Amino acid sequence: MSNSELITLAGSTDGTTASGTISLNSDIFQSPVQYFRIPKGLTAKIWFKKIAGEGETLFTLQYTHDVTAAAPDWTTILQQEKLTEKGEITLEKRRPEILRAFTGNEAFRVNWTQPTGGAANAYIELGVEIE
Fold first, then answer.
1. pLDDT of residue 1
2. Which residues are 11's β-sheet partners?
3. Nearest C-alpha neighbor of 95 from the set 38, 51, 48, 50
4. Which tens digit of pLDDT belongs to each residue from 6-63?
5. Distances (CA, A) of 123 to 51, 55, 67, 130
6. In contact, 49 and 126? CB cutoff 8 Å
7. How far apart are CA 19 and CA 4, in angstroms?
């Protein structure tokens, strides 16, 4: 039997620019974060994504092996999620997207892009199991 913790990470676009990094919030954080660092030897399993917004927005999950580097090398991983128009999409996985931490320096973040800055506010929520 393994111990795991399911947390919800959520954030939104800033509404003024055409792209950026989502500031992630959770009840376990004292303040928003730009990335989530995975504890050494554990995995982050992303079980669901919920996106909503007022217009076209592309959300991209990125991963780095060393967030402590002066300029981390962020790699786009897995699948990008696109909201094509005003509305909401909920994506639940029978098999989660799994991100592993071998050294404890691994992290992931969510970037967003819109065709025009400030055209639409958008929101993303991730269900992440740490195991």
1. 45
2. 124
3. 48
4. 999 999 998 888 899 999 999 999 999 999 999 999 999 999 999 999 888 999 999 9
5. 6, 11, 24, 22
6. yes
7. 33
Alpha-carbon span 48 to 57, nearest angstrom:
18
Q: In this model, does residue 70 exceed pLDDT 70?
A: yes
Q: Is the dihedral of CA 5, 48, 104, 71 positive or negative?
A: negative
- In the chain, the amino acid numbered 64 is T
Largest separation between any pair of C-alpha atoms in the chain: 48
To which residue do tokens 């090398």 refer? 73
Cross-strand pairs, 68: none
Among candidate residues 111, 115, 116, 128, the one with its CA nearest the CA of residue 13: 111
In what helix (H) or strand (E) does residue 62 lie, and over which residues does it extend?
A: strand 57-64
Token duo for residue 67: 């967030």
Q: Rounded to whole angstroms, how far apart are CA atoms 61 and 92? A: 16
